[in-house]
Amino acid sequence: MNEVRWGIIGCGDVTEKKSGPAFQKAIGSGLVAVMRRNGKLARDYANRHNVDKYYDNADDLINDSNVNAVYIATPPSSHKKYVLAAAKSGKPIYVEKPMGLNYNECRDMIECCSKHNVKLFVAYYRRALPRFLKIKELLEDKVLGKVRFINITFHKKVSPIDQKGEKHWRVDPLIAGGGYFCDLASHMIDILQFFFGEIGVVKGFSSNQDNIYKAEDCVSGVFIFNNGIHGSGTWNFNSFTNLDRTEIIGNKGKITYATFGNSPIIIETEKGIRKINITNPVHIQQPLIQTIVDELLDVGKCPSTGISGASTNWVMDQMLQRWDKKL
User: Fold this and answer.
1) Contact status, residue 4 vs residue 121, Cβ threshold 8 Å
2) Could you tell me which of 20, 71, 230, 318 has the fewest CB atoms within 10 Å of its CB?
3) Ramachandran region of residue 71, left (φ > 0), alpha (ψ -120 to 50) or beta?
4) Is 140 found in the same domain as 235?
5) Could you tell me the residue range of the domain that residue 189 belongs to?
6) Separation of alpha carbons 35 and 58, rounded Å
7) Is the pTM for the entire model greater than 0.90?
8) Which ranges of 101-169 does DSSP label H, i.e. alpha helix?
9) Are residues 253 and 141 in the same domain?
10) Domain contains 313
11) 10 Å Cβ neighbour count for 83?
């Protein structure tokens, strides 16, 4: 492979700025085809983003001989279907997060890709963002000494869409696998596993406190990484205010950061308090997409794979009381 020529299945909102343009800007990469079930919307996207081909059928895009890698940006309920189809065609795959509706689906995807010798990557793009690479560097430099435990606090006001009772796929468990917890907490859990390795033990509780929609709106849990670090988290989506805070506490200091947005990374040690400002790129998935392209061109390695993506699904399943054994 001399150039990665991408085709997108599901060119919706996430592809407008976060990912779509990044396929065109990454070195050694191009975007050659897009697909959406509504052909008119697919054509409109192709015209606006200067893409040569558009389809209203996923199989047509997968079987396009000019497409040699497939990005699946549909809601989670169709991830498995399209991953299996692309894997059987022998084309490498980049799938949106969360990887599947549950861990069992992720396991099926991994097995199919392995059978067909196809590489599988997952859109946990924080693993390649400069602000999180900086946090990882600080941890590896032992700025906190030995890390002991992690606290996650995340809460949001009820969204206007949900207050109006409008239907939204992100809070439909049949489409999203759960509610906003699966959509947002997946990023928070994944980046912690990037920092510290896999979580091995999880205990969780979930509730639907407001009954505005079918999915859970409050989740809390505790977890232990395989290296012995403890963690706890609370995610609530019917709060009076918004807060995004993760604290990593060691025996010599603490790092506090927000998973979403550009707020400063705060480091507290005996020497005092230090703040580091690192702004996210315009196309937030571009750094990770570049690592995927580099791996497919045999000049690098991507840090977000099917195996790591499935591990995050497994942790969420435990939090939501859906128990399955790991691979």
Assistant:
1) no
2) 230
3) beta
4) yes
5) 130-279
6) 6
7) yes
8) 103-115, 130-140, 160-163
9) yes
10) no
11) 27
